[in-house]
Amino acid sequence: MESEVLLSVRDLRIGFHGVEAVRGVSFDVRAREVFALVGESGAGKSLTARALLGMLPREATATGTVVPDLSGARGRRIALVPQDALSALSPVHPVGAQLAAAVRSVRRVGRREAHALAVAALDRVGIADAARRARAHPHEFSGGMRQRAVVAMATINEPDILVADEPTTALDTDHRELVLGLLTEQRESRGTALVLVTHDMDAVGRHAHRVLVMYAGRGGGVGPRTRGPRAPPGPVHRGPARVPAAAGPATPARRPARLAPGPGRPPPGLRLRPTLPAGDGRVPPTGTAATAVGRPAGRLPPRGDDMSTPLLDVRDLVVRYGTATAVDHVSFTLSRGETLALDGPSGCGKSSTVHAVLQLRRPASGEVRFEGRELTTLTDRALRPLRPRMQPVFQDPYGSLNPRHRIRDAVAEPLRIKGRRPTGAQIAELLDRVGLDPSYGDRRPHELSGGQCQRVGIARALACEPRLLVLDEPVSALDPSVRAGILNLLADLQDELGLGYLFVCHDRAVVRHVADRVLEMREGRITRAWRPR
Predict the structure, then answer these.
(1) Is 149 helix (H, G, I), strand (E, B) or coil?
(2) Where do the domains of the chain lie, and which CATH numbers do they carry?
(3) What's the pLDDT tens digit per position in 156-194?
(4) Largest CB tally within 10 Å, which of 57, 69, 250, 422?
């Protein structure tokens, strides 16, 4: 006997400026089930999910039916776990206060009871010392901890339908299972229906009851996960892109294998670089959506550099938040043209380390030397000329960009801060370098996919002609095929410009593919150093 239908979608169509992004999607959501929307970046999954909540952008036009209309019951009958945790959390209020406010917006409870429920919700999603962490602000959480906090916020009022838009992409393997387990527990204990928007086929295989595969805005029919739904041909249907688990030893003298995106046309406006070395006329293999393709040696540092001095030298770095130590006497060096990876679970101190390297947060003690110059003793004014030479690329591609600025203004902003007047040709060249059509300069961030926004973030960093890129989980929020494109782009830029990369990641497969050396972190300390084989 089938469960009660909680939500029914028929012939849903969503367009922007006359172009349809979702094209006639229909499905039902039933009580106590996990219904998965699967597809690559730009397939229309997130737009479809947001239509269920009545949260489409104002410029979107939508036709079709969603019955019942739950847009007036958000937080009570239907709730969202967004991919972008920063968009759901206020930067000026403690996390616990925000969860308590979510409780009081739906239930008639006092402040103390609401705060107690907020602490309990944080504890359920695996945030250690939840009572203390509830008093912290979002910027004091790691990316993974922020994602768990928004899961806690969405589930705290026990809604009938939970829409989870890529809820685990920012999490390491252990916490990914914890969050999926929490969502499953909510479904089993409360009869909650879970709409899971994801490109993680392993999660779909373990948790989903029914699946709708989307490609280019179309749905291919709903089916159980065991048999698989009928779907239009495309990269996701043929198999998810996977980074090779091991790509051979990676040193500055030998590049890792290049990833070739799978079959299917790239998204409009995206310029793919060649997937084979020049002169090699072989056709890339097409059995999977991302496969390793050999590349020649590269990573030559810029001419005139002093190779005897490390690009970055960190010694006994300590970072504290109040009385809590987030980074405990961490030391490492990074050479020009090298990729050094920081690996470890969410909350282990990776992001705090790179924030201290960039002097976005001043360390409690220790030294950070960039190109031989000690940074921790410099004033903000003295640091200003050095900042363009060490640029960050953040985990959240949308949160890194001002939503009101057009892409051309976002890319030009670093140049204007340096006192330059960028020309249209310079902006077009930067966009072209990261594989975007210059016409995308007229768009705003919400009109781009996550992978395209991440390319814009890289273009902003390159505008300052840096020597060091600090990449804080740059591909964790992206689907596998888009992830392969970003990793290829970073490899190309390192070949071309001799950049040093400090690469933060919790995905061991990605780490093995990109890194020359790896430092594993646990509880704020480096516990192991190794080279990928």
Answers:
(1) helix
(2) 5-237 (3.40.50.300), 312-530 (3.40.50.300)
(3) 998 999 999 888 776 777 777 777 887 887 787 777 899
(4) 250
